[in-house]
Amino acid sequence: MILTLPYPDIGPVIFEIGPLALRWYSLAYIVGLLAGWRYCRRLALRPPQRLEPLAYDDFLLWATLGVVLGGRLGYVPFYKPAVYLADPLQILYVWQGGMSFHGGLLGVLVAMWLFARRRGVGFFVLSDVIACAAPIGLFLGRLANFVNGELYGRATDVPWAMVFPADRDALPRHPSQLYEAGLEGLVLFVVLYALVRRGALERTGTLSGAFMIGYGLARLAVEFVRQPDEHLGVLAAGATMGQWLSVPMVLIGLWLIVRARRAS
Question: 3-class DSSP state for residue 19?
């Protein structure tokens, strides 16, 4: 008999009042954005102080739109293009789930580029600070995935395996959402904070590159034990969609760090 840990079936909804419902996923987005905003304001006080803390008050709205619109629009072409081509209005049904981190990243990148141009500062002056705050949202988002019982791992016999209610096969599986929360969230946050303490804010582009590398490597690793998306499965070279989208992130991150070192 395979030993497993009991899955805490909390449910995706925190509470409901009539037709209105507050979901853990929504709360993760809200708290992640607000906590990230406050952290950015604190980092803005550290040298070289190229952008005043008040600027991040304005950027909060830009970031919210970038995350939500980018995450949704990025999910459509990468994961379920046929479904949304058949019924394009479903793109607007964000409450049904379906958000892509890579799409959300692209959305935030566009928002940062527009905001930096409007403020008259370099793109990486802004992105370095935002990169340090991003693991907060990633950590909370992965915890919400776990509570929702979605994006679980592959079948396994490890002692900490869990049976997720949404799994039709009812097999013990890796709680890969928690692995991602730890690597993409806690570990990446600590690494970036350590770099900040070592003066990385003064080497423009270093923190942005470190984030890209850290997230990409974490996602590449966890995808080996995460159940591939049912409608996609395993793609070329035995890699998943998440892995193929993460490889460019690592390469771009390496280029940014090399570029920052040469410029310093």
Answer: coil
